[in-house]
Design a protein that fits this description.
Elements lengths: L13 E3 L5 E3 L3 H21 L4 H21 L14 H15 L9 E2 L4 H25 L6 H24 L5 E2 L5
Antiparallel strand pairs: 1-2, 3-4
Helix pairs in contact: 1-2, 1-4, 3-5, 4-5
Length: 184
């Protein structure tokens, strides 16, 4: 018999964590790893929308790291949680890449509105979904569920990286950065 993607075991609103424990699909842990999965899907869309080799390589690397983060978050904390395939070096890679991009960007003196080019907008979508994943992961930890510290640092830095990447892509694509203006 061929492998089937559907199991019918979630039809009553529950899902299984890695390790076997069943939880409601509304569980904070499911929300956290589901949002990481959503982020990963949008990163694929962003990666498909650029031809810049370095950016494509970085985005694919991020996708691999996020898959590991998702597996960590999807694991039953009453069992031995798998350490995410994520290290401080991954956080430092994002920081270095931001520093490199910042060297060629004009100083940021105002808030900017997302947009200017479809690829830039996808980047901002990734940034905001990443922030949501971070908030949910923090809430999970605050609820007493174990989360590896490097996961929180990585998600925090990753959302910053998406912001700088959006600015860099706007520059590369010659898209205008629209400054937010408060109504007077």
């Amino acid at each position: 018999m061929a492998f089937r993607i559907y199991t019918k075991t979630g039809d009553n609103g529950e899902t299984a964590l890695f390790g076997g424990r069943r939880v409601p699909k509304s569980h904070l842990r499911v929300d956290a790893y589901g949002t990481v999965d959503e982020l990963n899907a949008f990163i694929g869309l962003l990666r498909d929308g650029t031809t810049l080799t370095h950016v494509r390589t970085m985005l694919e690397t991020v996708q691999h790291r996020l898959f590991s983060v998702g597996a960590h978050l999807a694991s039953d904390p009453s069992k031995s949680l798998p350490a995410p395939d994520l290290t401080e070096t991954d956080v430092l890679l994002l920081e270095k890449d931001m520093d490199d991009m910042d060297e060629t960007l004009p100083p940021l003196r105002h808030f900017i509105l997302p947009g200017g080019h479809t690829t830039v907008s996808y980047c901002h979508l990734c940034r905001t979904i990443c922030r949501r994943a971070e908030r949910l992961t923090v809430a999970l930890e605050q609820a007493g569920e174990p989360v590896d510290d490097v996961v929180l640092r990585y998600l925090n830095r990753l959302s910053d990286w998406f912001f700088v990447l959006a600015r860099k892509l706007a520059q590369e694509l010659k898209a205008e950065e629209v400054i937010w203006k408060q109504r007077s």
